[in-house]
Amino acid sequence: MSSTHSSAPLQTTHVVTCFLQRTDGPHTRILLVQRSQRVGSYHAHWAGISGFVEANVSPDEQAYVEIGEETGLRRDQVHMLRRGTVVEHVDEELGRHFYVHPFLFHVLAPDEIKTDWEAVDMRWIEPDELSGYETVPKLKEAYVSALLGEEIA
User: Fold this and answer.
1) Nudix hydrolase domain spans which residues (predicted)?
2) Does the first or last residue of the chain, that is N or C, have fewer Cβ atoms within 10 Å of its Cβ?
3) Residue 39: is its pLDDT beyond 50?
4) What is the C-alpha separation between 6 and 12, in angstroms, rounded?
5) What is this structure's pTM?
6) Residue 133 and residue 129: Cα distance in Å, rounded?
7) C-alpha angle with apex 11: 52 to 64, nearest 5 degrees?
């Protein structure tokens, strides 16, 4: 059976999305960062701390790398709470089939965060405010997956 569909095959792309939460106020809040024009896609959209999973690096390890690069936080300033199940997103325009590995982290030093060039703004929001932001695709699904994910001892 031949297909008349001539688009190139989608590139399999594994990414991590880390939801950093703080519990030092009356309500639990999560960190959103607004993507800069200098990142590859979804400019000005809000996201968690995220990045491509590098070759020969586990998603868990990549999560710590991205947090370090994008927030300046050290490993001893965050604690991995949960690892969610993969959330898939197909973006025909970008030619990518994203496999999002979601993580939930507790931040021990939220006031130490200094975002890098990938973000132009950051906000601590209550999770139910997520729908009020223009986010990268499937961010809410990724958050729910992280929240309901496997607990890390």
Assistant:
1) 11-148
2) N
3) yes
4) 18
5) 0.93
6) 8
7) 10
Q: Where are the beta strands (DSSP E) in the chain?
A: 11-22, 29-35, 46-47, 49-52, 78-83, 87-91, 96-107, 119-125, 150-151
Residues with Cβ < 8 Å from 103, sequence gap 6 or more?
16, 17, 18, 19, 59, 60, 63, 80, 82, 83, 84, 146, 149
Assigned token pair, 52: 């491509």
Plot region of 42 (φ>0 → left; ψ -120 to 50 → alpha; else → beta): left
Percent over 70 (pLDDT), the chain: 95
47: its two tokens: 């996201």
Q: DSSP letter at 144?
A: H
8 Å CB contact between 104 and 81: yes
Show the tokens assigned to 65.
Answer: 């790398």
Length of the chain as a residue count: 153
Question: How confident is the model over 107-136, as pLDDT tens digits?
Answer: 999 999 999 999 999 999 999 999 999 999
Tokens representing 113 are 């965060």
Phi, psi of 94 (to 5 degrees): -85, -10
**Both tokens assigned to 143:** 């958050």
- For the CA atoms of the chain, what is the radius of gyration? 16
